[in-house]
Design a protein that fits this description.
Length: 394
């Protein structure tokens, strides 16, 4: 088949985490014999056309280099009120995205278009006359709430899709609750992970004293403050631990102040993000990786999957899609989100009970391989493409 991929996130270079799973899926389809093109935004210093992993990548221009800052920022679905340069570039970004998708569709005639995130890619690819698959990844699902312009636009775009996929059952339920009429064509299909890369983390020696790891954005919804307080409880209970926080965001200063106020500077370090190629070693050196997200802000929790593949035990809050990765007493331990005392208790169990930790980690890793192995994930999407193409031909 000819598959046209549309995404506002796609790796800009080897090892770039931006949209890495989108590229991995596209390359998996190439391995299955499909011809794949990807339409993605240009960014400073990049070629406008290239071939990567057998995928023909076309990066559309929407302004001079200094102004092409709309994509690859992590803020596309969170607004630009404090970033006027990005705000002013949204209209040309959207216009060029849509016109490029239409131009390539008209000349290349793809069998299926696969758009990642309903906005901007799903919107850009809707109404072309070709079968459209839209994958919702989480940040775009939150835009379905309420009755604003974006919510109304989401209803229009998703109703026109031949199929809608989500990366977790939690997200599927939210999409269907917002747009019940698409329930029959909205399914869960996990995105592929670089399983082999993360499994290399198993070669790492565990840090001493035992290291607790968090990797992600430093925003209030991630509950990093809860994790810091839990580390304080462990220290006071006599557990020799260290807490390593890898991330950046608006809460960085507030979290640093919290560490100081609790006198935890000797065991807690807050460091910037590291490259994706370094994360297997980070997981491998840690004893436990924690995701303490509050409420419904977590679509799935892929950091926990990556940690399991690297041989690291995991703990997650009972929030969002995390319970689909952390099945209590089977693949990890769970705690009530926002409850630092409960989190400390679960951490204490994993730090002291080695057989429990090893059993949970191995079962979690086994399930992760089955679900996220690239060729298997690509095969599931390939079958979906065939189904929607067949339906469109009837």
């Amino acid at each position: 088949m000819r598959v046209l991929v549309a995404s506002h996130n796609y790796p800009r270079r080897e090892g770039d985490p931006a949209g890495a799973f989108v590229a991995r899926l596209a390359r998996g389809c190439v391995d299955l014999g499909d011809e794949v093109q990807a339409i993605v935004p240009h960014a400073p210093g990049l070629a406008e056309q290239e071939s990567a992993g057998g995928v023909a990548v076309r990066r559309f221009r929407y302004g001079p280099d200094a102004w092409e800052r709309v994509a690859y920022t992590g803020h596309l679905h969170r607004g630009f009120l404090n970033e006027p340069r990005r705000m002013v570039m949204i209209p040309p970004f959207l216009a060029r995205f849509r016109s490029t998708v239409r131009s390539v569709t008209a000349s290349w005639l793809p069998d299926v278009i696969h758009a990642h995130w309903w906005i901007p890619s799903g919107w850009a690819a809707s109404g072309t006359g070709r079968p459209l698959v839209i994958t919702c990844h989480g940040s775009d699902v939150r835009l379905l709430d309420g009755y604003g312009v974006l919510s109304l636009l989401a209803h229009r775009v998703l109703r026109r899709a031949a199929a809608v996929t989500t990366v977790s059952e939690f997200l599927r339920r939210r999409v269907v609750a917002a747009i019940p009429e698409i329930a029959s064509r909205c399914i869960v299909l996990p995105m592929p992970l670089d399983v082999e890369r993360f499994e290399r983390g198993r070669q790492e020696a565990r840090a001493t004293p035992p290291r607790i790891l968090y990797a992600g954005n430093l925003v209030a919804s991630k509950g990093v403050d809860v994790l810091i307080r839990a580390a304080g409880h462990l220290l006071r209970d006599g557990h020799p631990v260290q807490l390593r926080i890898l991330g950046e965001g608006p809460d960085t200063e507030r979290l640093a102040t919290l560490v100081k106020s609790l006198a935890l500077e000797s065991i807690v370090e807050i460091l910037p993000f590291v490259g994706q190629e370094q994360m297997p070693a980070e997981y491998g050196a840690a004893t436990v990786t924690v995701l303490a997200t509050r409420g419904d802000a977590e679509g799935l929790g892929l950091t926990l999957v990556e940690a399991l593949l690297a041989g690291c035990a995991v703990i997650g809050s009972r929030a969002g899609g995390i319970p689909e990765v952390v099945i209590p007493e089977q693949t990890g331990l769970a705690f009530n989100d926002g409850d630092d005392i409960d989190l400390a208790a679960q951490l204490g169990r994993l730090l002291t009970d080695v057989p429990l930790r090893e059993r949970l980690t191995e079962e979690g890793a086994r399930r992760a391989r089955v679900t996220f192995e690239p060729s298997a994930a690509a095969g599931r999407f390939h079958a979906l493409y065939q189904d929607v193409l067949a339906d469109s031909s009837r």
